[in-house]
Amino acid sequence: MSETTITVNPPIAKKIEKTLEKHGDIRIDNYFWMNDREDENVINHLNKENEYTSLVLKHTEIFQKDLFEEMKGRIKEDDSSVPYKLNGYWYITKFEKGKDYPIYTRKKDSLQAEEEIIFDCNEMAKGYSYFKLGGIAISPDNTMASFAVDTVSRRQYTIQIKNLKTGELFSDKIENTTGSSTWANDNKTLFYTKKDDVTLRSDKIYKHQLNTDTSKDILVYHEKDDTFNSFVYKTKSKKYIVIGSSSTLTSEYRILEANNPDGEFKVFQERVRELEYSIAHYNDSFYIVTNKDNATNFKLQKTAESNTTKENWIDVLPHRNDVLLEDIEIFKDYLVVNERQNGLNKIRIISWNGDQDYYLPFHSETYTANLGNNPDFNSEELRYNYNGLTTPSSVIDYNFKTKVKTIKKEQEVLGGKFNKDNYESKRIWATAKDGVKIPMSIVYKKGIKLNGKNPVLQYAYGSYGSTIDPYFSTIRLSLLDRGFIYAISHIRGGEYLGREWYENGKLLTKMNTFTDFIDCSKFLIEENYTSAEHLYAMGGSAGGLLMGTVINLNPELYKGVIAAVPFVDVVTTMLDDTIPLTTGEYDEWGNPNEKKYYDYMKSYSPYDNVVSKNYPNLLVTTGLHDSQVQYFEPAKWVAKLRELKTDNNKLLFHIDMEAGHGGASGRFESLKEVALEYAFLFDLEGIDH
Predict the structure, then answer these.
(1) Is the per-residue pLDDT at 128 higher than 90?
(2) What is the DSSP string of 526-562?
(3) Which of 184, 180, 185, 239 is nearest to 377 (CA)?
(4) Of the candidates 588, 581, 518, the residue with the CA atom closest to the CA atom of residue 546
(5) Residue pair 289/328 in contact by the 8 Å Cβ criterion
(6) N or C: which terminal CB in the chain sees fewer CB atoms within 10 Å?
(7) How many C-beta atoms surround the C-beta of residue 674 within 10 A?
(8) Is the overall model pTM greater than 0.70, yes or no?
(9) Cβ(403)–Cβ(361) under 8 Å?
(10) Is residue 590 within 8 Å of 508, Cβ to Cβ?
(11) Which residues are tagged catalytic?
(12) Which has more confidence, 457 or 628?
């Protein structure tokens, strides 16, 4: 694929000066006008950006189609999930060849029973350019399903109820919810969470009675602190309805017996700043995963149902400095604990009678293992998922009594070309500028030479304590088979090496996230995995912020960068508490209404630090209806980069005019976006097939 000379000029956005002042500091934003989605000028400008991107990449169109077909060709189209049992029924999700959306089914008592279709999303999605079904909840008597639909992609779901005996929909319709709902044990009371119309914060829990006017639903809880979100669920034991409230650093729960939906919720343990806890019910006790008493990596405690406040909590698994306690799963006879040590997942099994306490063995240097869907309290089997950078994902059932593992399903890679022995994965460690060792999980096709000429795609996220585990991807094979090395940098701000790894990459230590990524890049170059001529970087959302900051700090390290739905206008967004989700972010980034946080944020905010200099080739993507990162952040950023950059490198902006933060909704539609991204990389690398 030859680099073609494009005569078309990029769209230049008009400048309308807007003065922003805070703490006596003045910022000029010439592109502030772009934040009006209803403005015809904004839509016209975005359309021009799309046209420009299409023209610049026109010579890759056939390659993009080939890449799409190649990636789609590895995916089993007629596929179904491993069945799981709940309350006498086996539940299965399946896909059919040529169809974009899942079909939800169930079978009574046995897998040989007749199939009952609960929802066929292919039928439900007709007439919509975007469709997402969420929050299916089956009533305790198995006769009804509450479910939720989003047809805009702003994560505002409408809840409805279906009669599973007749197939009819009840007239009840509840708008602007999170999508999830929970049945009380009476089969007629439904608890659900509504969102604030403007900020989209989930702040109100309502109670709905079947076949009543939804406008008369009873408000049972209102979360008034705008840094908290609320949610509602039922314990696995089915005994309690639980209302949770959480911010980045603090949690609080309320409980009510599910047999008594008209009773009053009782506070489990009132919120205390920076006390985090989550609860699970078993027999006459609650089990609590918490950071109480400076348990940075969390510990497991328990308390009686009757005395739930924190002074009554006693240790079950004490805090350990080198082990992060991530999650627990409770069964009738066993407690299962998901832990992380030195970055790797561990699954620990403890019998309630005290006879057994052991770990499931995993033998790889870099892998992902986590608890699967285990809704049945009485099950004698644990379901978990396992995969690695070279190992397709498996769903495994482990029998507690016999200790036998059964692989229920291993992801099939179609196309006849995949052999996991052709690929190699390992973990390498870069040294950050403060001396801390930063792990990277890398994968590549066997036989590469460390001569500095390999193209590398370096990926990271690095925020909210969210860990990007080394996972298998059939899509990524299109990179590996063309000679790319793929590297996940486990930078600070994630939780890969425990809770402190997160604490040292947020608020006033956020800069570590960015410099860790840069130090990983330098390591890949120094160790001859690649060179600046062949190094590419990619991140999305808060990882898009990472991309924006990194190219301001060290643009010379990268040949090309992909920033997906990037959060790049940090200061302005964090000062605007009407933008969805802003106030809940203060514990992550800081509150810029305080000068020290304002100054620190401004020091790394990508939009505020664009200057006249050379930048790498850049592909920026977003969705017009994104509720997490508003489309105007990348739109303004691209406009400012166009104005100031001093190079002739590509600067391309692709806006999905119908989608939101998660991209397109169809099963294969999202592959078209990946094909565009990969074509951008391959084009820069001179790879044309």
Answers:
(1) no
(2) HTTS--TTTEEEEEETHHHHHHHHHHHH-GGG-SEEE
(3) 239
(4) 518
(5) yes
(6) C
(7) 19
(8) yes
(9) no
(10) yes
(11) 541, 626, 661
(12) 457
